[in-house]
Design a protein that fits this description.
8-stranded parallel barrel; TIM Barrel; alpha/beta; 240 residues
Length: 240
């Protein structure tokens, strides 16, 4: 199971939100590229990037920070937030991103997801963010009546690389991931599932790895910054 260190970008800084609330942002590093390099130096295989401002604006906002990260690092990186048209998808992939994450458009423009997955095989993921099992969009600000599993199943034949499933109520709260819901989603679809939200200890990562659902990966942010998870130790443990 791959561990994805998270770099959430707000106003050019590396931050973590509490349960998706933009006004509850803690700045952990004002140099996201340096933070990304530190994660790479610790041995990570991937980076998970989110343009938080972009998620609300509907277009890339922290592009300069992402560009700097791509310049400073060589490990694969995936990015979500404000990617809502084919032009933006192409531009990011041309800049060197390995994978783009489509969230809001998975609800509002599912055909775009399918078209992008065909155009860029293996480079398009879907981000499904949910509160109480229901999908939220536009930076988690808008809630829908769409069940997360039902939406995931709509993309079974689309050729997407992965689903990033975030339990919003767990995100940044250091309360542990929603293993039951994540495992249920992974069992319901054949698409690789990456867990996100609430991963706060090495025990959480081990529990996700060993839940029996064959999760492809897990994303952690605050716990890495707070020191609750030692990245080097976690990477070794997950590969053992």
């Amino acid at each position: 199971m791959i561990l994805y260190p998270a770099i959430d970008l707000k106003d050019g800084n590396c931050v973590r939100l509490y349960k998706g609330e933009m006004e509850q942002a803690t700045v952990f590093n004002d140099n996201p590229a340096a933070q990304a390099k530190a994660f790479q130096d610790a041995g990570c295989d991937w980076l998970h990037l989110v343009d938080l401002n972009g998620a609300f604006a509907g277009e890339p906002v922290n592009g300069a920070a992402v560009d700097a990260i791509l310049t400073e690092t060589s490990v694969p990186a995936q990015l979500g937030g404000g990617i809502r048209d084919m032009e933006t998808i192409e531009r990011w992939l041309d800049k060197g991103l390995t994978r783009v994450i489509l969230g809001t458009v998975a609800v509002e423009k599912p055909d775009l997801v399918r078209d992008a997955a065909r155009a860029f095989p293996g480079q398009v993921a879907v981000g499904l963010d949910a509160r109480n099992g229901m999908v939220a969009t536009r930076g988690w600000a808008e809630e829908t009546d769409i069940n997360v599993t039902d939406l995931a199943r709509q993309f079974e034949d689309a050729g997407i690389a992965a689903i990033i499933y975030t339990d919003i109520n767990r995100d940044g709260a250091m309360q542990g991931p929603n293993i039951e819901a994540t495992a249920a989603l992974a069992r319901a679809v054949s698409i690789p599932v990456i867990a996100s939200g609430g991963v706060s200890s090495l025990a959480d990562l081990i529990a996700l790895r060993d839940c029996g659902a064959g999760l492809d990966g897990a994303i952690s942010g605050r716990a890495l910054y707070d020191g609750a998870i030692d990245l080097k130790e976690a990477l070794i443990t997950l590969k053992s």
